[in-house]
Amino acid sequence: MDFKEKIVEVTTEIFETMVMVDLTPGEPLAEHVSRFECSMSAIVGFAGFKQGNLAIHTPERVARGLTRDFLGMEVNEINEDVQDAMGELANMLAGSLKPFIASNGERVELSLPSVVHGKEYTLTVVNDADWVMIPFQVSHGDFLVGLELKKQS
Amino acid sequence: MGKTVLIIDDSNTMRKIVNRSLRQAGLEFDSVLEAGDGQAALDILAAEKPDIILSDINMPNMDGLEFLKNKAADPSIKDIPVVMVTTEGGSEDMVEQSRQLGASGCVKKPFTPDQVNDVLGPLL
Prior knowledge:
- The complex is a heterodimer of chains A (153) and B (124).
- Chain A is of the alpha+beta class and 153 residues long.
- Chain A has a single domain (4-18, 55-150), classed as CheC-like (Chemotaxis protein chec), CATH 3.40.1550.
- Chain A is 33% helix and 37% strand.
- Chain A contains 3 helices and 7 strands, in the order αβββααββββ.
- Chain A has helices at 4-19, 60-71, 80-101; strands at 24-25, 35-48, 52-59, 108-110, 114-122, 129-138, 141-150.
- In chain A, strands 1, 2, 3, 4, 5, 6 and 7 form a 7-stranded antiparallel β-sheet that branches.
- The longest helix of chain A has 22 residues, at 80-101.
- Chain A is globular and about 45 Å long.
- The two termini of chain A are 15 Å apart.
- Chain B is an alpha/beta fold and 124 residues long.
- The relative contact order of chain B is 0.19.
- Chain B is globular.
């Protein structure tokens, strides 16, 4: 999947313009991560010509820090603000990637964001998919942006 | 007299984000009104007349397009400018419909303070 540069580009743009944080991208992961601990995952689905999802996976501590920067207010716990903020960031990322996923004008629709978090959880969303997961580093810590697209027959 | 803005979004968090974006754009309002959907906004507009309205499109109960229709039908509020707040990659059809229903402009997330200023500034 050749979305690495585009994910880095739109993630950098969104986090620098909307959250006002500097971030450093890492190299795409060699192995897919699906099990998370003390984390939060915000997921937006793609439907139509391409099926799959875009997700932000972040430790809860990083999610609180990003929400504090995004909203300009203190955030001491995982609450509705954190879930909404991470969902909105995933929504913006998916929306910005959509023109490149449907590069020939095909119809692709976005789902509303879903957010899960917990002490320990596993996400297995799309079977038989191409995927890319890219780590990013911000002052609060690291988070992952993942894109999965079902292989087309 | 200070200026007033009405922010319509079903997400309390998004209303905070939009409010923060206005401040970052240098647009200071003396009063910020908030509504969770179009009907709640119409209820507020029965008593308050803000200088500008920022509205989400997709909302439960009464969405942004239905709100624009209702607003256009009320002579006491029809001239208050409305700017739609959408996400890049969202439905272009709905953005176009909002323009046809009288929206004065649209800002797409992610937006920079300059972009917010370019759209809202001339309307204030």
